[in-house]
Amino acid sequence: MAISELKLPQGVSAHEFRSPVLLAEGLALKVAKQLSDAISERGTAVLVVSGGRSPVAFFQHLAKQTLDWANVVVSLADERWVPVEHPDSNAGLLKRYLLQGPAANAQFLSLYSAAANIERAAEHADRLLAELPSIDVLILGMGDDGHTASLFPKSPNLEEALKADGSRRCWPMLAPTVPHQRLSMSRALLASAKTTVLSISGQSKLTTLSAALAGDSVAEMPIRAFLQPTLEIYWCP
Fold first, then answer.
1. Taking the model in full, what pTM does it have?
2. In the 3-class helix/strand/coil scheme, how is the chain assigned residue by residue?
3. How far apart are CA 229 and CA 69, in angstroms?
4. Would you say 234 and 27 are in contact if contact means Cβ atoms under 8 Å apart?
5. Of 64, 78, 79, 122, which has fewest CB within 10 angstroms of its CB?
6. Whether CATH 3.30.2350.10 fits 11-235
């Protein structure tokens, strides 16, 4: 199966690359251009990315781009509730692979805090995100279960977190795998991004995307909330 074989909603565009390296390079060039344009327009740019191992090559290529990094704000669509030193920390991943060299001058807005519990941590992140300027570029990933960010099917707070008009920006979520506790930006905040890219690779993700396109229950497959016009999909085998 190729992404060109999928019937995408009107307005959704797809970009196919021959390898993960070429995808990472292409995505880095696109994002750097979008951020540069935002800085030219209003003096600052906001990038929100997803964690996990998949985007490492993209982070490394983006870090090499010539940008006015001091005027870029970087945050995460979701985070594991673990300290930055923990190997599962998305913040730690960013610090190792993106916030290096000139890119280290970017302002990083972390979702994690050493609060008494995950609910307090989410409340703290929600207050911080109230000061986040509008999101210029959002990079999403997708799990084989159709989750994106940490909006997992059957998570206790999913219904609230998926409200299109919700006012809360960050929710405590539960993942089906360890570590269970996560922090995730809400659908409403994520959907406010000016540019949204879904970056995926491999046949299994294409199969998941095909299943998502075939139904309409957002709670069953939260990625469906973002299969809207203006979405760009970057895929490689």
1. 0.97
2. CCHHHCCCCCCCEEEECCCHHHHHHHHHHHHHHHHHHHHHHHCCEEEEECCCCCCHHHHHHHHCCCCCHHHEEEEECEEECCCCCCCCCHHHHHHHHCCCHHHHHCEEECCCCCCCCHHHHHHHHHHHHCCCCCCCEEEECCCCCCCECCECCCCCCHHHHCCCCCCCCEEEEECCCCCCEEEEECHHHHCCCCEEEEEEECHHHHHHHHHHHCCCCCCCCHHHHHCCCCEEEEEEC
3. 29
4. yes
5. 64
6. no
- Residues of the chain with confidence (pLDDT) below 70: none
Is the distance from CB of 78 to CB of 141 less than 8 angstroms? Answer: no
Roughly how many angstroms between the first and final C-alpha of the chain, as a whole number?
Answer: 9
Take residue 11 and report the two structure tokens written for it.
Answer: 């307005």
CB atoms within 10 A of CB 228: 12
Pull the structure tokens for residue 31.
């994002």
221 neighbors 215 (Cβ within 8 angstroms): yes
State pLDDT tens for residues 88-111.
999 999 999 999 999 999 999 999
Measured torsion, CA atoms of residues 154, 118, 134, 97, in degrees rounded to the nearest 10? -100
Q: Determine the Cα–Cα distance for residues 210 and 72; give it in Å rounded to an integer.
A: 34
* Distance of alpha carbon 206 from alpha carbon 212, whole angstroms: 10
